[in-house]
Amino acid sequence: MIVVYGIKQYLNPIKAQLSNVIHGCMQDILWMPAGKRAHRFVPLEAEDFYFPDDRTSAYTVIEINMMQGRSKETQKALIKALFRQIEAEIGISSIDIEITLKEQPAHCWGFRGMTGDEARDLQYSVNV
């Protein structure tokens, strides 16, 4: 699951394009299936979103929650691809993007009536 925060006047117009860029990077780096998209956008009022003084109103926070298993190299490749593609395709400077990867053990995930460590039919590999 991915959660994206930003000032609503800036985030709302680019949500669909940003979702496409994020998912494209997830497919390229993590080999996620095309239909495996779980993005949540949280557009905030400017007065509810405090950020560093040297950032602009385009400041965007991306939190990526995923099961443990990806290598450090894969995680770094994902972060760098996101910076590169978001800047190239949407025009948000990397100074205005903050990315956090949050990993949890598979048993801490629940979906389709089971926990992640019980799932045997995932269409992607967690260990990449």
From TrEMBL:
Pfam families membership: Tautomerase_2
UniProt superkingdom: Bacteria
Entry protein name: Tautomerase family protein
The species this protein was found in: Salinicola endophyticus
